[in-house]
Description:
By secondary structure, the protein is α/β, with parallel strands linked by helices. It has helices at 12-23, 52-55, 98-111, 156-160, 231-244, 293-309, 317-347, 350-358, 376-381, 385-395, 399-420, 428-440, and strands spanning 4-8, 27-31, 45-49, 65-67, 71-74, 83-84, 92-97, 115-117, 122-128, 131-137, 140-143, 146-149, 176-186, 197-203, 206-214, 218-225, 248-262, 271-272, 275-277. It folds into 3 domains: 4-62 and 95-169 and 266-328, FAD/NAD(P)-binding domain (3-Layer(bba) Sandwich); 176-262; 337-440, no CATH class.
Amino acid sequence: MGRNIIVAGAGHGGLAAAYHLAKNGYHVTVYERAAQASELGYEWEDFFEANTFERAGLPAPETGTVPKVPISFYGPDPEDEPICQAFDANDVAMHMNRKELCATLIRTARDAGVQFVFGCTIDSAILIGNRIVGIRTSLGDFTADLVIDACGVDSPLRTSLPAYLGIQKTLKKYEYIYAYRAYFNRLAGFEDVRNEYKVYFVEDGKAGLTWAITTEETVDLLIARFEPFGQEEIDRMHEIFKADNPHLGDTLVLGGQITKIPLRRPLAVLVADGYAAVGDSACMTVPITGSGITNSLCAGKILADTVLADQNEEYSAVTLWQYQREFIDKIGDTMSLIDIGKELLLALKKEDFAYFFHNKILTSEDISFNNNEMSAKAVLSHFTPSVIVDRLKKIGANRELTRRISGIAARAGRLTLTLSLMPDRYYREDVVNWATKFERLYNVAPDK
């Protein structure tokens, strides 16, 4: 084999992997459909973990850290107090404009020797036998020793792969979400309104997520739905938000796009001979918030380390399997656990949410764990037997809610067992069988 690497799409995880591989002497080319680098990224800003670049082995950007903004979760009854995250006053996070982040990653990759081809639409993977050997694009066919799939949620590479490889081709309903995000002016005359990050899980009875983040100058508005929506729904929700956020203005300052985001656990199988998926192509976002910056950049580093360790330069599913195992162990197990929690949120009725908030079944302590050291074990460690017993007592009066939560808890236990049984080595039949068992844990439609 050789050291010729194709990164399909300029996703965050793909750019991180490209940087590390090029820095170590690999010939890496990124093929991206955008006409130029300036078109990449959304016109919005995101918070992500302060140690992300360190964990991903990337040069730190000039943008520094800012104090973390605690999130307040609001229920459907305005009389109930919100559930607020608690952070130490010294806790900080990275805060970057998405376009700036993309520009930074591209500049870093170029400095390491990565080549870029823009204006290149990727159509499908090229296979010889069971091996992916290249990509078919609007500019012609290109071959490589390894193809890294960073094309995004609807990756044309992933969807073109044969089913027997066990890599999920398309996502199901409730595994992705449509998100509208826009910054509106903050009205004068409401100086007493504090800067706040307000999240609403239930808004007007629709399944989805909404937030309003108030800053000194703007109100950052998010509307996320599991069904496509347009300007009529945006205008309707804008008016609803004004009732609870009277300082929300009508002037669009920035953003205003609707984008499709994966909102599920990582794919059960990430690799094949000559192929590895990363970032949104592999569904590496947090299954409730949709944020994937930290996960994707760290996954890119794990993937690059796995490739560098392949001394025979085989880049087969067998040698790439270590990437999957390490990602699941460090990041993916938590995302899988959170996805089961997401299914509970989807199953809850509006009155169930009200019951949760009114009876304080979920507390500030439950959601204030340290994200810099987030793992399934860390998330679960807070829920000691005494905590669980206390919450069950509060829920006990609501039999339907008890039934739903008991079912979710049982599946969380089965998930922990299933993850522990992930094959140590890649044998396709074993891997596909394991992936089938893993996915069955989630084949439960919300039954409102």
